[in-house]
Amino acid sequence: MDVLADVVTAMKTGPASSGRTEVRGPWGLRFEGSVGAGFHLVLQGTAWLLSPDLDPIQLGPGDAVLLPRGLEHALADHPDSPITDFDPAVDFDPEAVPQGPGARALLLCGTYRLDRERPHPVLSKLPDVVVVPADPGRHRSLHTAISILGEELDAQRPGAAAVVPALVDALLVLILRAWFENNDCPTDRGWARALTDPAVVQSLELIHERPGAAWTVADLAADVGLSRAAFARRFTEAVGEPPLTYLFRWRMTTAARLLRDHDRPLAAVAKEIGYTSEFAFAKAFKRDFGVPPGTYRKQLIPV
Predict the structure, then answer these.
(1) Domains of the chain
(2) Distance CA 43, CA 34 (A)
(3) DSSP string covering the chain, please?
(4) Are 207 and 247 in contact (CB under 8 A)?
(5) How many Å apart are CA 88 and CA 66, to the nearest integer?
(6) pLDDT per position as a tens digit, 102-155
(7) Distance CA 163, CA 144 (A)
(8) Which of 6, 189, 200, 279 is most buried, taking the most CB atoms under 10 A from its CB?
């Protein structure tokens, strides 16, 4: 069980949207706040990331940016350049994109559709802007993927329509992994530590692999070779909440995913996440989501 991949899969509510954008200076593009997580790759050239709440951030070729909470922001060739409203999901007329006499930049901009109402701590604990700079000596998988994307988008070779979406999906995990590795410190709390502490990772893998098991703190502690008190303290410091609180969170997250992606009966969903009765499951789900599971499923069905 890969915890990070499992979390990202559970958080996704649909496919990512993205678009290749070629601009020439002077240029500036404003991105409205989104319900998902925005992302940008600077494939060629340079850009500045601008937001009213942040100092300008200069970006270069190969840099990756993730905005986990869909913060409103802008990209530009210079902080003082004029800004134009822009939506990467719309098929823009090339003439509507700034094309001045200055330097060329090639960008990939888009949005990951994620559950923002119940964000997993992996995402909710991130800053508003995550920047992973190009570094030839680190994160080779991420930068290889960015390089391949740049080639596919620039050359538009046969099969690009299949290659690009797969790479864009993979980028979310690659960016998160690179961020946690960049910010990992043995004394830090948070998911950078949770994903590298062997005992915590092992316990998370157990919970994710068998959310329906009747786990106790003592059971999890024994399985990872720690005393109950030591395990509970270590888990809580790394993850940000006690083991059984996280277990309940993951059970409800799993239930929501099953209701969203499958049509299995509610009783089967309840059993899979560890509830002996459909009634007990429905009560717990309503307490957490505000609506019964049947209503939740109906709300997801397009009219």
Answers:
(1) 3-182 (2.60.120.280), 192-300 (1.10.10.60)
(2) 22
(3) --HHHHHHHHHB-S--EEEEEEEESS-EEEE---SSEEEEEEEES-EEEEETTEEEEEE-TT-EEEETT---EEEESSTTS--EE--TTS---GGGS-B-SS-EEEEEEEEE-B--SS--HHHHTS-S-EEE---TTS-HHHHHHHHHHHHHHHH--TTHHHHHHHHHHHHHHHHHHHHHHHT--TT--SHHHHTT-HHHHHHHHHHHH-TTS---HHHHHHHHT--HHHHHHHHHHHHSS-HHHHHHHHHHHHHHHHHHH----HHHHHHHTT-SSHHHHHHHHHHHHSS-HHHHHHHHS--
(4) yes
(5) 15
(6) 899 999 888 898 887 777 888 888 889 999 998 877 888 988 888 888 888 777
(7) 14
(8) 200
- C-alpha dihedral sign at 171, 173, 176, 180: negative
**Tokens linked to 199:** 């005992």
pLDDT tens string 13-71:
888 888 888 899 999 999 988 778 999 999 899 999 999 888 999 999 999 999 998 88
Q: Which two tokens stand for residue 21?
A: 């954008």
For 232-270, the DSSP string reads: HHHHHHHHSS-HHHHHHHHHHHHHHHHHHH----HHHHH
Copy the structure tokens of residue 47: 């850009």
